[in-house]
Design goal:
By secondary structure, the chain is mainly β. It is built from no helices and 11 strands.
Length: about 120
């Protein structure tokens, strides 16, 4: 069982930056590949980025490539999402998720555990 708690969301102007954190409970954090998803009002939950168990591999949605960076610290049981050059279309609730597989999956159904989400609002 893994419990995930996101933090770091807020209101920021376009062009600004935010850093999200996702703290995981348990001693098996390094056994999970991690992902960040987001969901805007009236839209489906979409994949943002993912990172492998060791942190050696990452994958990004085209919409955030070059602006967002995912990282993890297995000693601190935490995964991070650094978001730069934010745009109004990045406004959404951001969720972190964990899956027990080796691969970085882009579909929500492949993830076993989810956080409660943190709101990110980018004003124009």
């Amino acid at each position: 069982q893994v419990q995930l708690v996101e933090s770091g969301g807020g209101l920021v102007q376009a062009g600004g930056s935010l850093r999200l954190s996702c703290a995981a409970s348990g001693r098996t954090f390094s056994s999970y590949a991690m992902g960040w998803f987001r969901q805007a009002p009236g839209k489906e939950r979409e994949f943002v980025t993912g990172i492998s168990r060791s942190g050696g591999n990452t994958y990004y949605a085209d919409s955030v490539k070059g602006r967002f960076t995912i990282s993890r610290d297995n000693a601190k049981n935490t995964v991070y999402l650094q978001m730069n050059s934010l745009k109004p279309e990045d406004t959404a609730v951001y969720y972190c998720a964990a899956n027990a597989g080796r691969a970085i999956y882009s579909t929500p159904a492949q993830y076993d555990y989810w956080g409660q989400g943190t709101q990110v609002t980018v004003s124009s």
